[in-house]
Design brief:
hpI Integrase, Chain A; mainly alpha; two-stranded antiparallel sheet; three-stranded antiparallel beta sheet; DNA polymerase, domain 1; DNA binding; DNA_brk_join_enz
Amino acid sequence: MEKYTYIRKTITWENRRYEVRGKTEQEACDKLAELVASLNRGEFATSGNTTVDQWFLQWKETYKAPSGLTQKSLGLYDEKYNGYIGPAIGTLKLKDVRDLHLQTILNTQAGMSYSHVSKLRMVMQELFRQARRSRLIIYDPAEGLLLPESVKRSHRPITKAERRHILAVAQTHPAGLWVLTILYTGLRPGETAALFWEDIDFDRNEIHVYKAVESGTRTIKAPKTPAGIRDIPMRQELRERLLAVRGEGAAPVFPSANGGIRSANSLRRLWNSFAHALDLHMGAKVRDGQILQHAIAPDLTPYCLRHTFCTDLQRAGVPINVAKELMGHANISVTANIYTHRDQKVLHNNMAKLNPKGRRAVGKTQEKTV
């Protein structure tokens, strides 16, 4: 994935931020001097002659920053623009940008993740759609952009071998209870960060879920949809582990090192620590304290544990509408995407229900009696 490297210079003029780019320090300084001279002459005004760089800054400050987006979400716009869009077309005037320019930017990302290329297209579409609405350009060059071939990555359930090692490591690792909580309740990582001891009702054997830590912050907020508010019964082994370390009502169940609420970065470090121990437990090759060959799958994430909770519900014969409630899905189609994953044991068990009473299915069970 090739990225351009430009020298950036910025200036704030009458409470508005401007930016120029150059391939060298001298070129950037010269462009900055030209910009300052234009501003002093009162020549600058937002129009089709405005560069894409200048429009992006004004657009973000005027339309995106006041909209209530988190710093993480605002950072996504900066990451996509500064990494891919700006270096390619930032110095062009808005009126000179064509769909060919934008489609070429997208095409250079062929083979990358679907999430990345779709978000890159989204930023370009929002940027130029507003320019069109503001009558800075006659037509929108981002209107018909096509996504290049990309890779759709989805979470998966853990394997039997992974489950065996995860349960073993969770017995002693500091992050073990956190891992088991996700595996046995399907909580999202952000929901575990907002979980307090007062949210666990040991008398009713339930975990009350009604809040989560906002992505990119330590701010606790309500779920995105009402479906996120739910009560999840506890499995016996999880209940026992939680009871053994039960804390004060207003304290986080999974606190940071200083006893506060964990951020997304803190949760990521917690998982990385557990994943490292899991890697070693699964047989990673080590020399001088360094892992030379990993045994852990690169796509194993905390969301795989949540996904596994849902597939465990499927294998246990839990109706899909009940699984939807336990997972906190707003749309049952999301649950169905997990429930429709092929599982041979589930297929055989359900087909066996069609056999006449007293007849046994042909397969492993019958072969064992031979």
